[in-house]
From TrEMBL:
Subcellular location: Membrane
Protein name according to UniProt: Permease
Main location: membrane
Species for this entry: Corynebacterium felinum
Highest taxon, organism lineage: Bacteria
TM regions (residue ranges): 6-22, 34-53, 65-88
Entry coiled-coil feature ranges: none
Length: 135
């Protein structure tokens, strides 16, 4: 249980520091925030994922955790399609977007810190990211 609290505490700390820097005008305008966003998205996160994958064993990368996560995401997407079809029919594109949204898990932004602190291993996250990108 402490691991879950530590994982979320790190996320909340990063959010709090960003908020504080914005309130103190260290990060002043939208352009500066966009630069930090792009550095995190295009440089820091891929570097972190590369580091995690390079240090992981095949056993970690091909674990039952990935199968369970994939099956649950696909199952929830299918449930959405069924509910959508019978209770609020929409066009095919809207149904696909809804199903994708239901099956999506925030495995990158929240998954990495929680995976490290709860599971003790962040190697479970990159395969799930790959599954989400493929589907």
């Amino acid at each position: 249980m402490i691991g879950v609290a530590e994982g979320f505490a790190i996320i909340l700390t990063v959010i709090g520091v960003g908020y504080l820097l914005s309130r103190l005008k260290v990060i002043g305008n939208e352009e500066q925030r966009l630069v930090l966003n792009k550095v995190a998205f295009y440089a820091a996160t891929p570097a972190l994922i590369f580091t995690v994958v390079s240090q992981a064993t095949p056993k970690d990368l091909l674990s039952p955790v990935i199968v369970a996560s994939t099956v649950s995401a696909v199952l929830i997407a299918c449930v959405f399609v069924l509910i959508s079809r019978f209770f609020f029919p929409t066009d095919r594109a809207s149904t696909v977007m809804g199903a994708a949204s239901c099956g999506y898990v925030n495995s990158n932004n929240i998954g990495l810190p929680v995976g490290i602190y709860v599971l003790g291993n962040a190697a479970y996250v990159p395969p799930l990211l790959l599954v989400q990108m493929v589907f």
